[in-house]
Design goal:
By secondary structure, this protein is an alpha/beta fold. It has helices at 8-17, 22-29, 132-143, 191-196, 235-246, 269-272, 291-306, 311-323, 329-339, 345-351, 371-386, 398-403, 428-436, 439-448, 459-472, 475-482, 514-605, 641-650; strands at residues 55-57, 104-111, 121-127, 150-153, 175-180, 212-218, 223-229, 253-256, 277-284, 415-421, 449-455, 491-498, 501-509, 618-624, 630-636, 658-662, 667-668, 686-693. The chain is 38% helix and 16% strand. A hairpin with a 4-residue loop joins β6 and β7 (223-229). α7 runs antiparallel to α8 (311-323), α14 packs parallel to α17 and α15 (459-472) runs antiparallel to α16 (475-482).
Amino acid sequence: ACSGIEDVGEAFMHLEASNWNLLEALQVVMPQEATTPATPTLPPPLNPVPQQPEVISVDSSPELLLPPPIPPLPLATPSTAASEDVQPPASTSSSSSSTTPAPVINVNIQILCGGASEGSTFPLELVGNTTVGGLRTLLHHLVGINPCNQLLEGFTAPVKDTTVIKPSLLPESRTLSLNTQAHFTPLFHNYYERMNGAHRSGSRGESENGDYLLLIHDETGSRDFSLRFPGSRRIREVKGDIHDLTSIPVRHQHWTGWPPNIDQENATLASSGISKQHHLTVRKIVKERTPRTQRKMRGVQAGATSGNSSSSSGQAATSSAVTAEGVDDSSGEEFEDASELLHDDDDFLDMMDVPPSRKAHTLIPADIEDEVMGVLHFSEEFRARYGSITPAFHQGSLEDALKESVHFPAKTRRLLAVYLHHDGSVLSNVFCSQALCQSSVVDYLSANFVVWGWDLTHEANKARLLNLVTTHFGSVAATTVRNFNTDKLPALLLITRTRGVIEVLSVIHGNCVLDEVMTSLLHASEMFEEQRAFEVTEEEAREAREAVKAEQDAAYLESLKADRAKAAAKKQAEMEEIQERERAESLKQQVDAIKEAVRASLETDLPNEPDPNSSDPITTLRFRIPGGETFSRNFLASNTLQVLLNFLHVRGYPADEYKCLQSWPRRDVSSLDASRTLMDYKLFPQETLNIEER
C-alpha cells in the first residue's frame, strides 16, 4: 500500500532482488529525501473494531488460497493503535538529522498451531529494540492468536515479555516456532487466510453449506459477536471459542437462548434444533461470597496491599472493595483465579465456606463392595471432576478388560492401560488436567488401548487392587504396585501379553508432562506392534497347521464313517439273510410237517398189499424213479387209481410234485381220473411206470 505497486509479480520481483529484505525493497522502490531515509509507516490494524458486529467464520476444512504477498510489516516505532504492549524503540541518536537507520533483525516464524498452514514459515523484520511482548502483539495482528495464548519457542535463553530481542538470543537459523496453549483454537486457520480476510460474511449466504450464524451478546463486557460456525460444531466448542473472545471460563458462563433438554456437552449446532441465525446471551456467573469468605479475602488482600503501600490505606481500600461485593471486578477475578492455583482442594473448599457434603469425593468410596460398582463410580467421578474430555474407562471388571484387550487373538489384540489414581498425591490434578485429559492423549488411548481405572486413596481399595493384580498379573506386578509411593502416583501401567504371559510393558508416572506421556505411549505401541506382528505370523502358521490337521481329521472321520456304514450294511444283510434262512427253514419245516402228516394219514388209509395167492385179480406195478432205481408192489386190479397215487405219495412222490408216466400209450397216469380202477386203465396184469419230477 505504501509503495504504490499493484502488480503482485512486480512486488515479488523486488523482494527477491533484495533477498526478501522488506526495508531494502521499500528503499529501492520509494523516493527518498536527500537527508532523511524513507521510514515505512505502520499499516492500519488488520482487524479494526468494526461498527457492525464482527462475523468470524469457523470452517472445518478451509479452502486453500493462493498465498498473496506478505503485506508491509511494522518496522518503525509501533503506534498505540497496533499494540499497547510494544515498547517504542529507543532513539539511536540525539540528532534529528542522523541518517543512520535503526538496526534490523531478520527472523523466521514457523507456525506449529495446526490448521492448513501448519509447518509453514514466513519471514519478519524487527527493529533492533523490539521486545518479546512486542513480537507477540505483532503476531497477534498477523495470525489472530492472542498474546496470552502464544508459545514462542526457539530462544537460546529464557526470555520474558520485556526482554529485548537480540541476535544472541536467536538460533543460527533465526527461526522461532509459534504454538498455542492447550485447548485454544486460533480464530484463523493460517496466516494467508487472515491476509485474505477470514471474515467472508459477504461472499456467501448465511445458510450456505449448512453454516449457522450465532448472534451472541456478552452482558458482562457489553459486547456483541456475530460468529459463523458449521453445523458439525459442538456446543462445548462454541463455549470454548467464547472463552477465547471474552476470557470468561466455560465453567463460569451462563447462557440464555439454547434449546432446553439438549446435551450441551456433545450436541452439535445441527442437532440442537436452532435456526440458521440464532440469538444467544452469555454472562459471567458471579458467586455470592459468604461473610467467612469476605473475612478471608480481607486478610489476603490486606497482606498483599501492605507489601506495596501503608497498612492502613491498603486495608481500607480492600475493605471497601469487599463490602461492595462485586463493584471491583478485578479483585474478585483475581481471587477466583487464585483458586485454580491451590493444590489442596480441602483448603480451597474451606476458604470458599463450602459445606462438608459438597467437598470433593474420592473417585472410589472406601465402603465399596463390588468391583464393577467401584469402576462405574470411578468413571462418573473422574468425568465430573476433570470435564468431558477424559479417557473412555472400561465399564467392567479388570478380568473383563483383560478379555477385551490382551486376551484377544494377536490380529485384534490391544494394549491394556491401567490408570492408578491417588488423591493424596500433589501430582494427581496436574497429571490428569495437563496430560491424561488432553485430547491428543485421549484420542490415542481410545484408538490403541483399553483403559481401566482404579483409585488407591483408601487402603481397602488398594488391598482389593493388589489382590486383582496378583490374580491376573502375577506376584511380580503386585510387588511393583505395592512399592509405589504416594509421590510417584498417579501411574499409568501399560499391560501386554507375550507368548501367553501377561506382563507390565512400561509404567508412566505422574511427574511426566504431556510430551513425555505421548512419547511413552508411542514407544509402548511400537514395541507392542513388533511383538504382535511376530505373534500374528506364528498364529497364522499355527492356524495353517491346525487347518491341515483338521482337514486330515475330517477326511479320516469321513472314511471311518463310510467304513462303519459298509460294515453296518453288511451286518444288516447277513442278519436279514439269516432271518430269511431261518424263516425258510421254519416254513420248510412246517411244510414238511404238513407233508408228513398227510403222508401218515395216507399211509394209514392205504390198503395192505394183496397176497400173491389171492383169488382176486392182482396186478404188479413196477416203478422207475429218478436215478434209475426201481421198486414194485402188487395191487388189486379193482383198486382205484387213487390208491396207486396214495402209495406213491407215501413213498415220497406226491402227485403235485411228480408225474407218473406210462410208456404205452404215452400218458401221465397221475393226471387221469383217480376214481377209476387200474383195470379200467389197463394197468393189469403188470406195468412199468416212470416217476419224473414236474
